[in-house]
Amino acid sequence: MLIQLINPNTSATMTDAMATSAHQAALPTTQILASTPLHGPQSIECALDEAIASAALLDLIQAGKEQGVDAHIIACFGDPALEAARELADAPVIGIAEAAFQLASIVAFKFGVVTTLSRTLPASEHLLYKYGYERHCSGVRATDIPVLALEHLEPQAYALLKRECEQAMTEDGAEAIVLGCAGMSSLVARLQSELPVPIIDGVSAAVKWAEAIHQLGIKTSKVGHFGAPVQKSYVGRYEHWTR
Protein backbone atom coordinates (compact mmCIF):
# COMPACT_ATOMS: atom_id res chain seq x y z
CA MET A 1 0.00 0.00 0.00
CA LEU A 2 0.97 3.65 -0.39
CA ILE A 3 0.68 5.91 2.67
CA GLN A 4 1.03 9.66 2.37
CA LEU A 5 2.74 11.01 5.49
CA ILE A 6 2.13 14.74 5.77
CA ASN A 7 4.21 16.97 8.02
CA PRO A 8 2.00 20.10 8.26
CA ASN A 9 4.94 22.36 9.12
CA THR A 10 7.59 23.43 6.63
CA SER A 11 10.61 21.81 8.28
CA ALA A 12 11.98 19.31 5.76
CA THR A 13 14.39 17.97 8.39
CA MET A 14 11.46 17.05 10.62
CA THR A 15 9.66 15.46 7.67
CA ASP A 16 12.69 13.24 7.05
CA ALA A 17 12.81 12.18 10.71
CA MET A 18 9.10 11.32 10.69
CA ALA A 19 9.53 9.37 7.47
CA THR A 20 12.30 7.30 9.06
CA SER A 21 10.01 6.42 11.97
CA ALA A 22 7.19 5.58 9.58
CA HIS A 23 9.43 3.28 7.50
CA GLN A 24 10.61 1.49 10.63
CA ALA A 25 7.02 0.80 11.68
CA ALA A 26 5.68 -0.11 8.24
CA LEU A 27 5.45 -3.52 6.62
CA PRO A 28 8.00 -4.25 3.86
CA THR A 29 5.21 -3.98 1.29
CA THR A 30 4.15 -0.50 2.48
CA GLN A 31 5.50 2.58 0.73
CA ILE A 32 5.72 5.92 2.56
CA LEU A 33 5.26 9.12 0.56
CA ALA A 34 6.55 11.87 2.85
CA SER A 35 5.20 15.34 2.07
CA THR A 36 6.18 18.82 3.27
CA PRO A 37 4.00 21.89 2.52
CA LEU A 38 5.31 24.65 0.30
CA HIS A 39 4.08 27.42 2.59
CA GLY A 40 3.15 27.88 6.22
CA PRO A 41 4.83 27.96 9.64
CA GLN A 42 8.15 26.26 10.30
CA SER A 43 6.63 24.74 13.43
CA ILE A 44 3.09 24.47 14.79
CA GLU A 45 2.89 25.64 18.39
CA CYS A 46 -0.33 27.65 18.68
CA ALA A 47 -3.79 28.04 17.19
CA LEU A 48 -2.62 30.62 14.64
CA ASP A 49 0.12 28.29 13.38
CA GLU A 50 -2.43 25.49 13.04
CA ALA A 51 -4.91 27.66 11.11
CA ILE A 52 -2.27 28.95 8.70
CA ALA A 53 -0.88 25.44 8.15
CA SER A 54 -4.27 23.94 7.36
CA ALA A 55 -4.65 25.30 3.82
CA ALA A 56 -1.26 23.97 2.69
CA LEU A 57 -1.98 20.67 4.42
CA LEU A 58 -5.22 20.31 2.47
CA ASP A 59 -3.33 21.05 -0.75
CA LEU A 60 -1.20 18.00 0.05
CA ILE A 61 -4.28 15.89 0.83
CA GLN A 62 -5.66 16.77 -2.61
CA ALA A 63 -2.30 15.97 -4.24
CA GLY A 64 -2.20 12.61 -2.48
CA LYS A 65 -5.75 11.88 -3.58
CA GLU A 66 -4.78 12.57 -7.19
CA GLN A 67 -1.76 10.24 -6.79
CA GLY A 68 -4.04 7.46 -5.58
CA VAL A 69 -2.61 6.97 -2.10
CA ASP A 70 -4.29 4.37 0.10
CA ALA A 71 -4.19 6.44 3.29
CA HIS A 72 -3.15 9.87 4.51
CA ILE A 73 -1.48 10.59 7.87
CA ILE A 74 -1.49 14.08 9.37
CA ALA A 75 1.71 14.10 11.43
CA CYS A 76 1.05 16.89 13.90
CA PHE A 77 -0.24 16.19 17.39
CA GLY A 78 -2.94 18.86 17.09
CA ASP A 79 -4.54 16.80 14.27
CA PRO A 80 -5.02 20.04 12.27
CA ALA A 81 -7.75 20.13 9.62
CA LEU A 82 -8.48 16.44 10.21
CA GLU A 83 -12.22 16.61 9.58
CA ALA A 84 -11.77 18.84 6.53
CA ALA A 85 -9.19 16.38 5.17
CA ARG A 86 -11.66 13.52 5.64
CA GLU A 87 -14.24 15.46 3.65
CA LEU A 88 -11.72 16.05 0.88
CA ALA A 89 -10.17 12.57 0.74
CA ASP A 90 -11.62 9.22 -0.24
CA ALA A 91 -8.93 7.16 1.46
CA PRO A 92 -8.74 7.10 5.28
CA VAL A 93 -7.14 10.14 6.94
CA ILE A 94 -5.50 9.46 10.29
CA GLY A 95 -4.41 12.07 12.81
CA ILE A 96 -1.49 11.02 14.98
CA ALA A 97 -3.04 12.17 18.26
CA GLU A 98 -6.21 10.16 17.72
CA ALA A 99 -4.16 7.15 16.59
CA ALA A 100 -1.93 7.34 19.66
CA PHE A 101 -4.85 7.70 22.08
CA GLN A 102 -6.58 4.69 20.53
CA LEU A 103 -3.48 2.51 20.79
CA ALA A 104 -2.62 3.65 24.32
CA SER A 105 -6.12 2.90 25.59
CA ILE A 106 -5.75 -0.70 24.38
CA VAL A 107 -2.46 -1.41 26.14
CA ALA A 108 -2.95 0.62 29.35
CA PHE A 109 -5.82 1.47 31.67
CA LYS A 110 -4.46 5.03 32.06
CA PHE A 111 -1.98 6.78 29.76
CA GLY A 112 -0.17 10.06 30.17
CA VAL A 113 0.65 12.57 27.45
CA VAL A 114 4.01 14.37 27.45
CA THR A 115 4.16 17.23 24.97
CA THR A 116 6.18 20.33 24.06
CA LEU A 117 5.11 23.82 25.16
CA SER A 118 2.87 24.58 28.14
CA ARG A 119 0.65 26.74 25.95
CA THR A 120 -0.34 23.64 23.96
CA LEU A 121 -1.74 21.82 27.01
CA PRO A 122 -5.32 23.07 26.45
CA ALA A 123 -5.20 21.87 22.83
CA SER A 124 -4.15 18.35 23.89
CA GLU A 125 -6.79 18.28 26.61
CA HIS A 126 -9.41 19.43 24.09
CA LEU A 127 -8.54 16.56 21.77
CA LEU A 128 -8.82 14.05 24.61
CA TYR A 129 -12.37 15.25 25.29
CA LYS A 130 -13.24 15.49 21.61
CA TYR A 131 -12.21 11.89 20.97
CA GLY A 132 -13.63 10.60 24.25
CA TYR A 133 -10.34 9.54 25.86
CA GLU A 134 -10.31 11.93 28.82
CA ARG A 135 -11.23 9.10 31.23
CA HIS A 136 -8.30 7.04 29.96
CA CYS A 137 -5.75 9.84 30.41
CA SER A 138 -3.93 10.35 33.71
CA GLY A 139 -2.82 13.84 32.69
CA VAL A 140 -0.99 15.96 30.13
CA ARG A 141 2.46 17.32 30.91
CA ALA A 142 4.60 19.87 29.06
CA THR A 143 8.37 19.92 28.73
CA ASP A 144 8.56 23.47 27.30
CA ILE A 145 10.91 22.14 24.63
CA PRO A 146 10.23 24.05 21.37
CA VAL A 147 9.23 21.84 18.45
CA LEU A 148 12.25 22.74 16.31
CA ALA A 149 14.61 21.94 19.19
CA LEU A 150 13.56 18.31 18.79
CA GLU A 151 15.48 18.16 15.51
CA HIS A 152 18.79 18.26 17.41
CA LEU A 153 17.82 17.54 20.99
CA GLU A 154 20.36 18.60 23.59
CA PRO A 155 21.15 16.16 26.45
CA GLN A 156 19.56 18.44 29.05
CA ALA A 157 16.37 18.67 27.00
CA TYR A 158 16.21 14.88 26.69
CA ALA A 159 16.68 14.60 30.45
CA LEU A 160 13.76 16.98 30.93
CA LEU A 161 11.56 14.93 28.61
CA LYS A 162 12.47 11.72 30.41
CA ARG A 163 11.81 13.32 33.80
CA GLU A 164 8.32 14.40 32.74
CA CYS A 165 7.63 10.86 31.55
CA GLU A 166 8.80 9.49 34.90
CA GLN A 167 6.67 11.97 36.82
CA ALA A 168 3.67 11.07 34.67
CA MET A 169 4.11 7.52 35.94
CA THR A 170 4.97 8.17 39.59
CA GLU A 171 2.77 11.20 40.27
CA ASP A 172 -0.12 10.83 37.81
CA GLY A 173 -0.38 7.05 37.61
CA ALA A 174 0.33 6.73 33.89
CA GLU A 175 0.72 3.13 32.71
CA ALA A 176 1.80 4.18 29.20
CA ILE A 177 3.20 7.40 27.75
CA VAL A 178 1.95 9.07 24.59
CA LEU A 179 4.54 11.42 23.10
CA GLY A 180 2.70 14.61 22.20
CA CYS A 181 4.64 15.72 19.15
CA ALA A 182 5.52 14.07 15.86
CA GLY A 183 9.04 15.45 16.27
CA MET A 184 9.52 13.10 19.24
CA SER A 185 9.10 9.98 17.09
CA SER A 186 12.85 9.40 16.82
CA LEU A 187 13.12 9.22 20.63
CA VAL A 188 10.79 6.26 21.17
CA ALA A 189 13.42 3.51 21.16
CA ARG A 190 15.65 5.31 23.64
CA LEU A 191 12.81 6.16 26.02
CA GLN A 192 11.42 2.64 25.74
CA SER A 193 14.79 1.18 26.74
CA GLU A 194 14.91 3.40 29.84
CA LEU A 195 11.29 3.37 31.05
CA PRO A 196 9.13 0.42 32.19
CA VAL A 197 5.90 1.36 30.40
CA PRO A 198 4.85 1.41 26.71
CA ILE A 199 6.05 4.53 24.87
CA ILE A 200 3.64 5.38 22.08
CA ASP A 201 4.48 7.56 19.10
CA GLY A 202 1.56 8.77 17.00
CA VAL A 203 3.42 8.46 13.70
CA SER A 204 4.10 4.75 14.15
CA ALA A 205 0.61 4.17 15.56
CA ALA A 206 -0.97 5.90 12.57
CA VAL A 207 1.04 3.78 10.13
CA LYS A 208 -0.20 0.57 11.74
CA TRP A 209 -3.83 1.78 11.82
CA ALA A 210 -3.52 2.74 8.14
CA GLU A 211 -2.22 -0.71 7.23
CA ALA A 212 -4.97 -2.45 9.21
CA ILE A 213 -7.75 -0.33 7.68
CA HIS A 214 -6.35 -0.92 4.20
CA GLN A 215 -6.12 -4.68 4.77
CA LEU A 216 -9.77 -4.66 5.81
CA GLY A 217 -10.70 -2.83 2.60
CA ILE A 218 -12.35 0.08 4.44
CA LYS A 219 -12.46 3.66 3.20
CA THR A 220 -13.83 6.87 4.65
CA SER A 221 -17.62 7.03 4.65
CA LYS A 222 -18.77 9.73 2.26
CA VAL A 223 -22.32 9.70 3.65
CA GLY A 224 -23.03 12.37 6.25
CA HIS A 225 -20.39 14.32 8.14
CA PHE A 226 -17.40 13.32 5.97
CA GLY A 227 -19.29 13.67 2.70
CA ALA A 228 -17.61 15.48 -0.20
CA PRO A 229 -17.25 19.26 0.22
CA VAL A 230 -20.25 21.35 -0.81
CA GLN A 231 -19.98 22.39 -4.45
CA LYS A 232 -19.35 26.13 -4.63
CA SER A 233 -16.96 28.66 -6.13
CA TYR A 234 -13.57 29.17 -4.52
CA VAL A 235 -11.16 31.96 -5.35
CA GLY A 236 -7.63 30.96 -6.30
CA ARG A 237 -5.95 27.57 -6.06
CA TYR A 238 -8.78 25.93 -4.09
CA GLU A 239 -11.06 25.53 -7.12
CA HIS A 240 -9.91 21.93 -7.72
CA TRP A 241 -10.80 20.77 -4.19
CA THR A 242 -14.51 20.24 -4.91
CA ARG A 243 -14.21 18.69 -8.34
Your description of this structure?
With 243 residues, the chain is of the alpha/beta class. The protein has two domains: 132 residues, Rossmann fold (3-Layer(aba) Sandwich), CATH 3.40.50.12500; 106 residues, 3-Layer(aba) Sandwich (Rossmann fold), CATH 3.40.50. 42% of the residues lie in helices and 14% in strands. The protein contains eight helices and eight strands. Helix 1 crosses helix 8 and helix 4 crosses helix 8. The chain starts with a strand and ends in a 28-residue tail after the last helix.
Element order: H for helix, E for strand:
EHEHEHEHEHEHEHEH
Low-confidence stretches: none
Helix/strand class:
alpha/beta
User: If you compute it from the alpha carbons, what radius of gyration comes out, rounded to the nearest whole angstrom?
Assistant: 17 Å
Distance between termini? 25 Å
Trace the largest sheet across and list its strands: 2-1-3-4
Number of strands: 8
> Which CATH class of the largest domain applies here?
Alpha Beta
Oligomeric state of the chains? single chain
Individual helix count: 8
Structurally, the number of domains stands at: 2
What percent of residues are in strands? 5-15%
Largest beta-sheet details:
4 strands, parallel
Label the overall shape: globular
Fraction of helical residues: 40-55%
Mean pLDDT over the full residue set: 94
Name of the CATH architecture of the largest domain: 3-Layer(aba) Sandwich
- Reported by name, the CATH topology of the largest domain is Rossmann fold
